[in-house]
Amino acid sequence: MPRTLLRAASAIVLTLAALNIPAAHAQDAAPVEVTVNTRAALAAVPETGIGTNHAIWDTHLGSDQTADLLKEAGVKLLRYPGGSYSDIYHWADHTAPGGYVAPNTDFDTYMAGVRRTGAKAMVTANYGTGTAEEAAAWVRYANVTKGYGVKYWEIGNENYGNGHYGAAWEADDHPDKSPAEYARHVVAYADAMKAVDPTIKIGAVLTTPANWPDAIVAEGDAGSWNQVVLSAAGSKIDFVVLHWYPGALDRTGHVPDMVQLAREQIARYAGPGAERIGIAMTEFNTGSSSNGTNTQPGALAAADAYATLLANGVFTVDWWNVRNGIGAVTEVEGHTDYGDFGLLSSAACTSDGSVCEPALNTPFAPYYALQMVSRFARPGDQFVRAAADQPAVSAHAARRPNGELAVMLINTSRDTSYAAALDYEGYTPAAGAPTVLTHTNGATAITTETAGTPAGRLLPPLSLTTIVLRPAAPPSGPGAPGQPAATAVTDTTATITWPRATPGARPVAKYEIHRQHGAVTEQLGETGGTSFTAANLRPGTRYTVNVIARDSGGGLSWSSPPLTFTTKAPATSSCTAKLTVQSDWASGYVGSIEITNTGAPVNGWTLNFAWPRAWQSLGSGWSATWTQNGQDVKAVSEPGNGALGTGATTTIGFVGNYTGPNVLPSVFTFNGRVCGTG
């Protein structure tokens, strides 16, 4: 957290008239093709999706105006008592030794604001200078004495920042700063707190994949922070806590891998029943005052990140902060940016009084981003895939239970208007003008109009646009199939099963299985039952599939929730290649590959693999001649290790660099043959 206290399936060609675009804008750019595919479903929109942080140093935390503004923005979760202050805050006497506690910010005042906002509460219990008994007493006061029904409770805040990995900003009075000690206390806190109220949900702090100190193993530890915490406390927790300050406005593409890697860690280390553990992003901000924290570029990045995180199954994304205070003042895209990480102005001034923020509670641009996301994707809606063929335009879509479809388009270009031409797969919009919500650079409100056609829309520079479409016919198909599962996954096959769909007016005739390729899908097959074995899959490849029910009259259901699985390396092969990460420093790692020739003897060999992501690269290598071409990596034997008889083994090594989630390569070929993993 900031440390300042104030601190496409097919293209369509449309005429200008069909796009409702004035001729004056026709020369700005070629139409952007946007594909929206309701067959490619993502996560459902959670009730707690749009959140923000409240901090006890904010004098206006408990005001009615603050609560009303947050309600108008669609905020559904409020986190308290405020980042690192959580680890010095004592709720019973409302003190934070070493920090500033503003008047009218106590727990009861906070809860009054939560209720007025119509939100859920999330409370961070004091790990750094508190005890399990103190946390349990807080649960008792909140849920037994006062009947507040606070469901979500975190244990500490960013506790990996206690100096164990070299950087110390988080208070921690425990002599042992290790993840094992934190995990031991998480267990004790969870036991004590759930003894008071068994219905609460307990969250443990994790490091965010590819963000420091993720993957680092400190001296004396049995593994990274996440591995140790999940292994020791996984059975006691209900969700994990991530924080993300990307520092740049173009990192949303990291989100799917970031969330998937977190899920894989949970599944690997948290023990039986790990699938119940949710993921909460309890602090998020662009983290880039130079690119605009209060101005439109930051707002566009916020809307893109919120939609992407929620579509990937994170159950809450909580902006840092409601009010944070003035920072470095700059000019961004024609407007003053106050370097304030808040949603609302605190009316603060620079230390010399030369620049002051606007009037108290004036919304900054990211406020309107949260408001737009809350109007675009409402609790109970289902995100579906959408994509644009222009890098400056991001597309998101959500299907509503009443059959409506909302499409949010984000134009990040500072000077180009784009004509967006929309193509719909699996959905037929009604004719007539849709409802359109727009927020442009410097605007102080979201405008709403009924205009244009479902086929397209002009996107002004630096704008957020949501188009809400009605269906051509009311929904009449069966209910959606339940959550699919994958079993018997091999290198080329996987068996997919799912709960049966509820019939509508007509019986269910069959189920279709669709694989996602971005916003495009391919049908893997269909069946009359509730199990299907997909064949001809590629080894070491991540697949995301949905199941759709079709009734006897051709009516289609909503898509099932998505299922993601990864195929394995071949069970048998004439070679094995085993990758081991020997050390990792959160931006690079040392890897060793043990190669075993299980086939006929060879005299000279070549090992090939590909980096899964464009942000990965080869730093150096040894015991082979290493080269990289694009994302493809090749290691050629040296004179001393080229001859490998049947059963012979050699080990080579490399340094791999990364600037995003580090998805490890999993498919290796040895002289052109796909290897097993040993």
From TrEMBL:
Fibronectin type-III domain mapped to chain residues: 480-570
Domain CBM2: 568-678
InterPro entries reported in the protein's UniProt record: CBD2, FN3_dom
Pfam family, one: CBM_2
Signal peptide per UniProt: 1-26
This protein's UniProt keywords: Signal
PANTHER family noted in UniProt: ALPHA-L-ARABINOFURANOSIDASE C, ALPHA-L-ARABINOFURANOSIDASE C-RELATED
Protein name, per record: Cellulose binding domain-containing protein
The species this protein was found in: Nonomuraea harbinensis
Lineage: Bacteria, Bacillati, Actinomycetota, Actinomycetes, Streptosporangiales
